[in-house]
Amino acid sequence: MAPQTREQTDLARVFNEHPERRYIMFGGKGGLGKTTFSAATAYWLARQGHRVLVFSVDPQASLSDIFQQDIFGKGPVKIMENLWAQEIDADSHIKAYQAEIRQKILDMYGFSEVPEEIEHYIQAASAEPAMEESAIFDAVVDIVVAGDYDYYIYDLVPLGHALYYLSMAKVYDEWINKITKLREEMREYEQVSKVMKRQKLTEEDQILAELLDIKSRINASSRILTDKEKTAFFFVVVPEEMIIVDTRNAAELFSRFDVPTSGYVVNRVVPAELAEQNVPEYLKNRIAMQQRYLGEIRQTFGDEVLAYVPELERDITGLPAIERLADIMYGGASQR
Amino acid sequence: MGTEQAQSPEPQPKRKRFLGAFGAARDVMYGMASHDMSRYAIRTRASMEHLFILITMGDLLGVPILPPYYSLRLLPYVVPQVSTWKRRMLRERDITDTLG
After folding, report:
1. Which helix (DSSP H) or strand (DSSP E) does residue A274 occupy?
2. Which residues of A touch B25 (CB under 8 A)?
């Protein structure tokens, strides 16, 4: 796995064997390197001539730091040829959404201002903690449905949030199905009464139309997350006991939500050769510990481990560092 | 004024009068045959409407039921019902509920 490798790594092989997998996600506990891996993967794919969008669904996004450019809330920002990055600004998304709702109320009823009770509700609803996630969820639908890119790289939130995000899709879907059914039944009763009174049939049920639209948006998003053909989900692990245990549990949960796990990438591996050099005891112990857990990782995840990424001497920020990481992860292919 | 009033009741065109009579007959038939059924349908429709709002807008009453992000999208359509519905949900039941 030396940076000079010109051969393709297993990770590159998985990408080359499955060009139909257009939605790429890196998941794992916080701080393990999901964002750097997302950026390096996006870079590698872009260098191969694919149009790539890497976007963050994390409210505390760090793509701006990695690309050393302020891209927060600015829509897709072009980083280099074929590569765009985007950080969704949930707050302004929510504000714009609220404004849209208010305007709709004013337009529909000719009010000059939104009634106090309604305004209170709008405010209270927006203060809900789930609001931010929902707003991002909704924004992601717009991004992926537009279909402007060959690859979409999701820089996912830490595992817990990702699970929430996934279960939300499932819950939303079931919920909307029930509500839609109720709404349809209501419409039947209304029609019965209208027919008996020989009144004109009702105009289209706008609430039902909204519900169906919400449903199709949620379905579009959750379909992608659970699409075995088009989606690849990679777990990021580091050789530490707690991380291995948590990742194993998460992988189990994810498979229960039908998320197709494509493999594992191990990060922060201290090169074992170092132990033979004159290094302090502290580092030797650390390397020994890592070797033990690397064995455990091999045992637990087996063939599904696609790459081992060494602990690098500095942070990955800026394109040259990203390129170097991409070389390590995917081999020399990024040199074209 | 007086003269105008004297002139105003113009003789209705025959066709309109016929339609009026027909309409009245139709209303009588409707009242005899299907008024009750229609009223039942409307009442069912109304209680389902309330049920619907309870499920979707329940957190207005402090019952968090649905993701608020999407309930906001429905809010504009239920603005007129919000006040009457709250009254209906929060008021005490009494004997008059069983009547009518």
Report:
1. none
2. none
- Rounded to 5 degrees, φ, ψ at A125 are -60, -35
ipTM of the prediction? 0.71
Smallest CA–CA distance from A100 into chain B, residue: B73
Q: What is the pLDDT of residues A71-123, one digit of tens each?
A: 998 999 999 999 999 998 888 889 999 999 999 999 988 888 888 888 988 99
Q: For chain A, how far is it from start to end, CA to CA, in angstroms?
A: 19
3-state secondary structure of A265: strand
Contact A211 B74 (CB under 8 A): yes
Specify if B89 maps to a domain: yes
The CATH number of domain A10-92+130-335, selected from 3.40.50.300, 3.40.50.720, 3.10.450.540, 3.20.20.70: 3.40.50.300
User: Do the domain assignments include residue B58?
Assistant: yes
- Cα(A296)–Cα(A306) distance, rounded to whole angstroms? 15
> Which is it for strands A261-269 and A231-237: parallel, antiparallel or unpaired?
parallel
Do the Cβ atoms of A211 and A183 come closer than 8 Å?
yes
Q: How many Å apart are CA A71 and CA A81, to the nearest integer? A: 16
Chain B contacts of A125, Cβ < 8 Å?
59, 68-69, 71-72
pTM here is: 0.76
A109–B68 CB contact, under 8 Å: no
Domain count, chain B: 1
